[in-house]
């Protein structure tokens, strides 16, 4: 026993350090949260490296900052706004079905309570007696009454739709139209677009607008930084070639990132104008309620102008749901546009 005790491996210092970190920061014990945190730190570090390089090596930019401080202030403000928008979007909720179900139960319970309070109270010996079923209200508040939710969701589908067809096998809840279970988040997301690895969260109804604005700010920052790098190369051909090579490498990385960001911005702008999601566009034939709809018909589109307004300005709940259009509406949507329709802005309104 003594020999075994002497030969036993003592805990490594790195293991003891990691255990202390996990005790101080419980979120680091989760591998998913740990990888997301490392990704966020890496992205912030990249921003600081690319922006800091300009301030350290670009003398022209430093001189311009002294003569035109507003120019530098706007650039720094754009960097700060982009990082804030990144963390704001990554920490926002995309709108989960289970949360929407609980919100619906709370709203329904409150409406029932208000209806009961408005009913004429019964009097007994001159005292007013109001009876409220607390068990039923508690059941609604806790979200344990799924029958009304099922009825609400099935009314959004064509008549005769079975609840089994749209019941998630993982969450065991009836999914409204445009919802999908995300295996990375392990939840059903309302108006599911995609799971963004860079943000560490799903993009859905609750944060799609924030995601679009983040892409726009990141694209503008990438273009502005690329212009500063090009100006530096134009003014420093007679200087140390090692720094120039480093600038060329960094400019190449910026160019690749800019191409990706521009394509992503254009793609999501098209989705916003037509009121689609990435999942609906890519997996259209795998979605049961989209199979019978023609390819060029966007069932949830209200027109380009209204889609933009609802996306950017309309104050709706992150748990709002869109029902499928009826057969008559789909027939009207499938009619091709004419010159008169273009003049009357039928495609926009």
Automatic annotation (TrEMBL):
GO terms for cellular component: endoplasmic reticulum; Golgi apparatus. It is found in: Endomembrane system. The keyword Nucleus does not apply. Keywords: Acyltransferase, Lipoprotein, Membrane, Palmitate, Transferase, Transmembrane, Transmembrane helix. InterPro entries: Palmitoyltrfase_DHHC, PFA4/ZDH16/20/ERF2-like. Residues 164-283 form the Palmitoyltransferase DHHC domain. Belongs to the DHHC palmitoyltransferase family. This is S-acyltransferase.
């Amino acid at each position: 026993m003594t020999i075994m005790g002497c030969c036993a491996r003592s805990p490594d210092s790195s293991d003891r350090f990691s255990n202390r970190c996990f005790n101080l920061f419980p979120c680091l014990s989760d591998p998913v949260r740990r990888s997301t945190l490392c990704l966020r730190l890496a992205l912030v570090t990249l921003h600081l490296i690319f922006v800091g390089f300009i301030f350290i090596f670009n003398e022209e930019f430093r001189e311009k900052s002294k003569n035109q401080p507003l120019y530098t202030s706007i650039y720094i403000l754009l960097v700060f706004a982009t990082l804030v928008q990144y963390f704001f979007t990554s920490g926002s909720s995309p709108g989960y079905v289970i949360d929407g179900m609980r919100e619906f139960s709370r709203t329904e319970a409150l409406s029932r309570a208000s209806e009961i309070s408005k009913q004429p109270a019964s009097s007994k010996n001159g005292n007013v007696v109001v009876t409220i079923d607390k068990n039923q209200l508690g059941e609604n508040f806790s979200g344990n009454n799924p029958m009304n939710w099922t009825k609400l969701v099935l009314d959004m589908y064509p008549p005769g739709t079975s609840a089994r067809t749209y019941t998630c096998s993982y969450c065991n809840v009836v999914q409204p139209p445009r919802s999908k279970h995300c295996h990375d988040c392990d939840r059903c997301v309302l108006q599911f677009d995609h799971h963004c690895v860079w943000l560490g969260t799903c993009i859905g109804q609750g944060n799609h607008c924030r995601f679009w604005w983040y892409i726009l700010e990141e694209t503008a920052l990438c273009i502005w930084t690329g212009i500063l790098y090009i100006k530096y190369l134009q003014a420093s051909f007679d200087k140390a070639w090692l720094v120039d090579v480093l600038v060329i490498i960094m400019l190449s990385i910026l160019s690749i990132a800019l191409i990706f960001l521009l394509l992503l911005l254009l793609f999501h702008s098209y989705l916003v104008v037509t009121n689609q999601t990435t999942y609906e566009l890519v997996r259209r034939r795998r979605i049961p309620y989209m199979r019978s709809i023609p390819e060029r018909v966007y069932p949830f589109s209200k027109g380009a102008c209204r889609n933009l307004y609802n996306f950017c300005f309309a104050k709706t709940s992150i748990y709002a749901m869109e029902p499928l259009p009826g057969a008559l509406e789909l027939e009207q949507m499938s009619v091709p546009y004419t010159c008169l329709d273009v003049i009357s802005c039928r495609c926009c309104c």
